[in-house]
Amino acid sequence: MSNDERTFVMVKPDGVQRGLIGEITSRFEHRGLKLVGAKAIQLDRELAEEHYAEHEGKPFFEGLVDFITSAPVFAMVWEGKDATHQVRRMVGETDPAESPPGTIRGDYGLDLGRNLIHASDHEDPGSNEREIELFFDDDELLDYEQVTAEWQY
Ligand code: RTP
Ligand code: MG
Predict the structure, then answer these.
(1) For each of the chain's 153 residues, which pLDDT tens digit applies?
(2) pTM score, two decimals?
(3) Does the domain formed by 5-152 have CATH 3.30.70.141?
(4) Residues 8/120, Cβ–Cβ less than 8 Å
(5) Does any ligand 1 atom lie closer than 6 A to the CB of residue 63?
(6) Distance between CA atoms of 92 and 94, rounded to whole angstroms?
(7) 105 labeled binding residue
């Protein structure tokens, strides 16, 4: 478990439209994670289908691609100790109705199809690196010292 694990996070169209980019990103900042990449983009179907390829053929797949391409998203890369697992714990369960208060989905969502945020799956090893590569070029990612780190680790 390294202190510089990187994970991919995306505020979905509902989160952007509801003005929750700041609320969501500030949670990761306050937790002590380091932001190493960020951009607002609108996904085309090709990128959306590749990103959610594991769900191809499932009944919700087309609706999921429709939704995720329907408006801009805010894509980010966060770095820190055990980042992929820790971010997923902060995100909550897939269904916001099953996510405890204190999690992002549990605090801001009610509906499975409108769950505000995507984060790489710690139970799918390599998904973090695969997703970062899919959304970001190397020169869009930063490598810098965060002065608070010595107080955290
Ligand atoms: P995500 O990939 O978006 O971070 O969500 P997740 O890991 O928590 O959940 P996943 O199983 O990867 O599902 C991706 C998205 O598909 C929608 N979904 N709908 N039964 C259903 O109707 C159903 N199951 C999943 C959700 O919006 C979920 O975030
Ligand atoms: Mg997933």
Answers:
(1) 688 999 999 999 999 999 999 999 999 999 999 999 999 999 999 999 999 999 999 999 999 999 999 999 999 999 999 999 999 999 999 999 999 999 999 999 999 999 999 999 999 999 999 999 999 999 999 999 998 888 888
(2) 0.97
(3) yes
(4) yes
(5) no
(6) 7
(7) yes
Could you tell me if the CB of 61 is within 6 A of ligand 1? no
What ipTM was estimated for this complex?
0.97
CB 10 within 8 A of CB 118: yes
Instruction: Please report, for the chain, the start and end positions of each structural domain, with discontinuous segments joined by +.
Output: 5-152
Q: Is the dihedral of CA 26, 12, 144, 83 positive or negative?
A: positive
**Is residue 12 a known part of a binding site?**
yes
Residue 34 sits at the vertex; the CA angle it makes with 130 and 99, to the nearest 5 degrees, is 70
